[in-house]
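Reagents: none. Just compute today. GFO/IDH/MocA-like oxidoreductase domain-containing protein.
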Amino acid sequence: MEAESRNLLLLCGFNRRFDPTIRSVFDRVQNEDVGQVQVVKVTSRDSPMPSTDFLKISGEYFHDCGIHDVDIICWIMGEVPHTVFCLAHAFHSHIAEMDDVDTVGVIMKFPSGAIGQIDQSREAVYGYDHRIEVFGSGGMLTSDNQNTLASTHFHSEGSSKPPIKFSFPQRHSQAFDLEMNHFIDVMYNKEVSKVSKQDGLRSSYVIDAIEKSFKTGQPVNL
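Predicted 3D structure written out:
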């Protein structure tokens, strides 16, 4: 409403939509390369653990982190879930003291029958862990973690790879650049915005239901 009243451009910061690999998954789903989508899974584990000062102003876990994965699943599906269920826990005492959580599991059911699954954590000690899997009647698509180097060491005791990228600025650096370029192009009327106000409202609506499910311990119908 504020942007509309001032006649300002509004672009919700769902940067993962601009990641080339994730975008390719979306495009291939639209091309029906996996047939009828039956399951969409997202794993999203942050690195490093955010500071206590940030956690206090983050808006709590669901709206800070969960909303991005909700957006990705709804974007890929082209649907809004009709039922959500959430379980969550705080393994870190300083997060529990904030009445917040650090580990989340979500199940969503869509009108098409497809099931969405989200697995999230505030901290993965091995790096930024973000993966997507789309399973359908005709196959599967994945967006996997990126290693710091695309090399593998094979030796007498097995094999090893360089670590995955440390945090989201490294993992999604290209996505941030593409998002900013898109924003500038929209400002100059070269492109139509790929992320609408309705997209942001939709994801907030679903996240509110997920948070309600966690607090009540019951499935929530939207």
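The mean pLDDT is 95.
Action item: order primers for follow-up constructs.
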